[in-house]
Amino acid sequence: MAANDLDWDDLRLFAVLARAGSVRRAAQALDVHASTVTRRLEHFERQLDVKLFNRNPGGLRISPAGADVLARVENIAAGVADIERAVAGSDRRLAGPLLLSLPDAMIGVVMPELVAFVRAWPDIRLEFAPAESRPDIGQREADCAVTITDAPPQHLVGRCVGKVAMAAYGSAGAANAEAAGWVELDGPPELRTELRQRDFPNMPLIARSQDLGTQLAALRAGLGIGPLPCAIGDVASGFVRAAGTTPTVVGELWLLTHPDLRSTARVTECMKVLTAAFKAEEAVLEGRAPRGIDAR
Questions:
Q1: What is the pTM of this model?
Q2: Which residues is 248 bridged to in the sheet?
Q3: Are 45 and 60 in contact (CB under 8 A)?
Q4: Residue 204 domain-assigned?
Q5: What distance in Å separates the CA atoms of residue 254 and residue 159, rounded to the nearest whole number?
Q6: From CA 243, how far away is CA 168, in angstroms rounded?
Q7: What is the pLDDT of residues 162-171, one digit of tens each?
Q8: Residue 129 near residue 141, CB atoms below 8 Å
Q9: Which of 22, 253, 254, 277 matches a 20 to 30 Å C-alpha distance to 135?
Q10: What is the dihedral of CA 287, 293, 295, 296, to 10 degrees?
Q11: What whole-number distance in Å separates Cα of residue 69 and Cα of residue 99?
């Protein structure tokens, strides 16, 4: 097979799949059907005449040959990203695409400000990168990202724009019921807490959620009580903070971009808007403004 027979889209899909670890998560990150990911992976493996992944019930485990291909793909992607960043970094226009990554827990906090941002600069096309795929700013999978961490990557630049606190919540009925069960939130990993062990050690564990969307639906429906970011639980309808729980900070909120992009006008302006938005909601983020208290 000639080198020019390779399709860059297949290389990118392979890299996303390697990071995601499953066809389902890769399909979500790429916004395609899972069958499309499977079909293109099989085509790519036939092209290379090598098995890139070992399939098992828990997902996909990259093979030794796949790891070698991934390292080469990442080298190619880094070169392409260098070119793209060099061009984007010299862009002084408040126009063009802006790829932003936001944790699900923070979307509601800043969306009003992002709406105003887009209306103020209609030539900017805002795109949201799927946060669950952990987009790589270095590979131009995002222009700027908000991430919950206490150790931001050293190759990126940015600032801490707040702290994220969690507490236990439930529906009005469940949050006040002595016999309520615990619904644990196992993912995303940056939102894991020890709230049950600390505040409700004798409460039975009745369910686990692997994503924030499922957790929200389960708690709103009255399945039990469980952890939520205070920025959601204290603001969204259908939730009551459980008696006996206190907010606990799980991490810092960092707003990051690549050094090559920090002088790009649309990136700079967006980061200013996001910084101001998180600063204004500081009390909500830290759980100091439950419903009925004006955070501002």
A1: 0.68
A2: 166
A3: no
A4: no
A5: 6
A6: 9
A7: 999 999 999 9
A8: yes
A9: 277
A10: -170
A11: 27
Q: Is the peptide bond before 64 cis (omega within 30 degrees of 0)?
A: no
CB under 8 Å to 121, separation ≥6 — which residues? 94, 95, 266, 269
- Answer yes or no: is pLDDT of 294 > 60: no
User: What gap in Å lies between CA 185 and CA 269, rounded to an integer?
Assistant: 34
Pairing of strands 59-62, 53-56: antiparallel
Residue 118 located in a structural domain: no
Supply the DSSP symbol for 237.
T
Unique residue bearing structure tokens 């990554």: 101
The answer to whether 205 and 184 are in contact (CB under 8 A) is: yes
173-204 burial code (b ≥16 CB/10 A, e <16): ebbeeeebbbbbbeebeebebebbeebbeebe
User: Rounded distance, CA 147 to CA 150, Å?
Assistant: 10
Give the total number of structural domains in the chain.
1
- Does 46 fall in a domain? yes
Token duo for residue 74? 């990442």
The CATH number of the domain where 52 resides is what?
1.10.10.10
- The predicted model gives 12-40 an average pLDDT of 85
- Token couple for 12: 């990118």
Encoding tokens for residue 127? 């795109």
Sorting pLDDT into bands at 50, 70 and 90, what band is 296?
very low
Pairing of strands 124-129, 96-101: parallel
Residue 275 domain flag: no
Residue 63 belongs to what domain range? 3-88
Pick the closest to residue 1 from 66, 54, 45, 65 (CA basis): 45
Cα separation of 115 and 99, whole Å?
A: 15
